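Researcher: Going back to the complex we discussed earlier. I've cleaned up the inputs and rechecked each line, so this should be the final set. Can you rerun the prediction on the complete assembly and write out the structure?
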Amino acid sequence: MIAVVDYGIGNIGSVANTINKLGFKFRITGDPEIIGKSKIIILPGVGSAAAGMANLKKLNLAETITDQLRNRKPFLGICLGMQLLFDYSEEGKVECLGFIKGKVLKFKKMKKVPHIGWNRVSFKSNGFKYSQGFKANSYFYFVNSYYCEPADKSIVAGTTDYGESFASVIIRNNLLATQFHPEKSGITGLYLLNNFFKHYL
Amino acid sequence: MTEGKVVKGIKFEAFRDAGDPVELAEIYDKQGADELVFLDITATVDNRPILLDVVKRTAVKVTIPFSVGGGVRSVDDMRQILINGADKVSVNTGSVRNPELIKKCANTFGSQCVVLSLDAKKVRPKIWNVFIDGGRTDAGLNAIEWAKEAVRIGCGEILLTSIDQDGTKTGFDVELTKIISEAVSVPVIASGGGGKLSDFYDIFSKGKADAALAASLFHFNELTVLQIKDYLEKKGIEVRNET
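Model: Rerun complete. Updated structure for the full complex:
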């Protein structure tokens, strides 16, 4: 079972619709026990880092998520759900979960922010694990004003250019985190999600 | 869309039936469309809520961003549309009558969810006014000033429709689109008037649009999404073309 973490933020409906299309079993839940028993955890998210962290804490989910990550539970972080894994976000100057060393920074070089739309992701060799079925420089759908800058560059599995080149995919052990929305990225996004789910289910 | 069917008019009048929205949505997704936009064009003037059932049935089918608008007057209207599976919601008449709506929706759901749908009509050379109530009423607002104000108070994207060009298939309003796109810091989707392939090249190269919307061309099988993308790619415009 896949647990989609409901922390009162973001586009849980779109994520649920997509998992349904792929035919995997899932629960939308904020219950630490169910999250603990799941085979895969998805932390979705659209919205601000400050609101996201506040909700995770209020719902006593921050600790659950960090514990599960430390235990190497297969984990997918999407957009804000990727950014919250880092130490710190410039958005609202907020301390995040601190599971990945590094910061979340605002785009500074482009006139149009948020970065809304389709953009290329160049997968690196460590990203090929989940990239069967699509080209290694395919388009994915982004909606972000901030991007992640991990201290350890070896975990970067895909990059995207928007004024600056940034880490759009991170893979570390059983964690996959994407700055884009695979659930909104057409057939390419479906492939990526299906590859990840099949790897662990 | 009106009464649950896809319709398309000319200059916001003379609408004709173009089919079932859910079926069309699936077809366009498969053809490689980058986003789907649903506008319930008579929700405001009929003074009724948007057809949530159609939104929901479409959302479960599509795999690309899905933007929905029509008759949004409150944060709760917007919430209902998002809960039913839209990724973004556009506001039009409701936000002109009450600009606070944009601010409240952006604070609640984030700017990335809030699209300003701006229907503009030329009233004098180089002057466009905002029209509301499905193009029926001149709001007496300058379109460029309203676009800037809406971005300042929180909208994250502008769907800019030229009433003069809508349904004419004689080309997008390049002049208007360029001015607005260069005046704001959010993406501008140009709409109204796309008829031939070169119109799409012009709206990106000269009009500085971030995206272009077409309706009747696709509804009545005059051009496909793929044809337009192939053409733009050959002309050196970056498009997502993976089919």
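Model: Worth noting: Residues 2-200 of chain A form a domain with the Rossmann fold fold (CATH 3.40.50.880).
Researcher: Good, that matches what I expected from the previous run.
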